[in-house]
Amino acid sequence: MSDAQVFLVTGPTGAMGEAVVGKLAASGHRLMLAARNESRLKEIADSAAAPDQIATVVADTTKPLLARRAVSETIDRFGRIDGLIHLVGGFHVGPVMLSDLDAYTRMFQANLLSAVSATQAVLPQLADGGHLVYLSSVLAREPFPGFGAYAASKAALQAWVKSLAHEVKHRGVHANVVVMTMADTEEARAQRPHMDFEQATKPAAVADVVDFLVSPAAGGLFGVMVPVLGKFEFSTGLMAGPPGAPQLNRL
Ligand SMILES: NC(=O)c1ccc[n+]([C@@H]2O[C@H](COP(=O)([O-])OP(=O)(O)OC[C@H]3O[C@@H](n4cnc5c(N)ncnc54)[C@H](OP(=O)(O)O)[C@@H]3O)[C@@H](O)[C@H]2O)c1
């Protein structure tokens, strides 16, 4: 397989889309971008430098039929497909007693079942190895209060990808996850001025790791969860150190 590949990118219309699409296109990969929001899809495609490398399809790839159609369009346009970059996701915050079952259904639909649908469409078309990349959250393993539905759906995604990775590794298909925390975007900063965005994840840092995961240099990685957390840390009063010592995380 040459270094330049063809990927279906599902859900590039969110906060991570522009950085991931820009990086993969700059590396020479050809991309079919699939999402429901047509105008945003076009903006993302136009934001990357090489228009001949990027095509778009308006589709809800959480629907198996539409996911298969997006894969067919990828192969019609570029002649083959080498993998999936799955950016579809959803977010919910709310205490258990204020989150109804619909919130849980939406989280599992957006964060787990979307990945299943897109993967089932792409996998049968990967003849000679390939790459499947998913995005998750640090909260899957260490959830904050109020993040139960979101964290559980991302934890389910991670367990599912690990199982998938074992299924497909013998035919050279790599399934891996990038684990991040809140993306440091202008919009997120405007919505949450009280937060310390020095601890947020830069979209460009995630894009770099996605690009690495689809490269030959990541040939030994199957089913890994790659943390791209920047300067994120869980704060705890126990970090204070012994009496009289400075705070150990601020030396
Ligand atoms: N942004 C963050 O701070 C952050 C933090 C941790 C993890 N992540 C994860 O990183 C990935 C990318 O993040 P992001 O912020 O760029 O994306 P996002 O806003 O979570 O979702 C990306 C796109 O997914 C599509 N989508 C969402 N719910 C859907 C549904 N129920 N059915 C079909 N499509 C749906 C939407 O596209 P259309 O409406 O155009 O179809 C949306 O623009 C996601 O998996 C996200 O959970 C993000």
From TrEMBL:
It comes from the Bacteria. InterPro entries: KR_dom (IPR057326), NAD(P)-bd_dom_sf (IPR036291), Sc_DH/Rdtase_CS (IPR020904), SDR_fam (IPR002347). Coiled coil: none annotated. It holds the Pfam family adh_short. Residues 5-185 form the Ketoreductase domain. Belongs to the short-chain dehydrogenases/reductases (SDR) family. This is SDR family oxidoreductase. The lineage of its organism: Bacteria, Bacillati, Actinomycetota, Actinomycetes, Kitasatosporales.
